[in-house]
Design a protein that fits this description.
Length: 163
């Protein structure tokens, strides 16, 4: 998902993954799976097949761990701020953030085209030998929108030839 905040002096682009499930929705989904799994497991346990409950609990713990990882990855965000002199990239999730600054005049958007059609194109902001990947959670259509918007923001020299 791509959002642009208009301002006269500073332009800010916020890139976040598509978060289709809220925290409460995630808990509701997990609770419903727990109930559907534990009800038959308890019945089998009462019939004497106690290993079924142990496997069900292990399965639910692994599902909870996977859902937690998906939720944590869903907090990822990239904030690209374009000011008069600088292009500032802040990206990360929660407390782990990465901050990089580039000169607006020398900044270029580099598009790396993959060798196969199955892989998405990669976008990089490059300046003075340093580069930073951006838009890794965007769809191809959103990447194209971002390329056009970013080229407008940093000026005519901002698009490099695709690699």
């Amino acid at each position: 998902m791509l959002a642009v905040e208009p301002d006269a002096a500073t332009r800010r682009i916020v890139i976040v993954p598509n978060r289709s499930l809220s925290v409460m929705g995630l808990w509701g989904f997990y609770f419903s799976i727990v109930m559907v799994t534990l009800a038959p497991a308890m019945w089998f346990t009462l019939q004497g097949f106690w290993p079924v409950l142990a496997y069900a609990v292990v399965e639910l713990l692994l599902l909870g761990l996977c859902l937690y990882q998906c939720w944590r990855h869903g907090r990822y965000a990239e904030v690209i701020t374009v000011t008069g002199e600088r292009v500032i990239v802040d990206k990360g999730e929660g407390r782990r953030t990465q901050h990089q600054e580039f000169s607006r005049y020398w900044a270029q958007l580099v598009v790396k085209v993959p060798a196969t059609r199955l892989h998405p194109r990669q976008l990089f902001i490059r300046s003075h030998g340093r580069e930073c990947e951006i838009g890794r959670c965007l769809t191809e259509a959103d990447r194209e929108k971002f390329e056009r918007r970013f080229a407008q923001l940093i000026g005519p020299g901002g698009m490099a030839d695709p690699m």
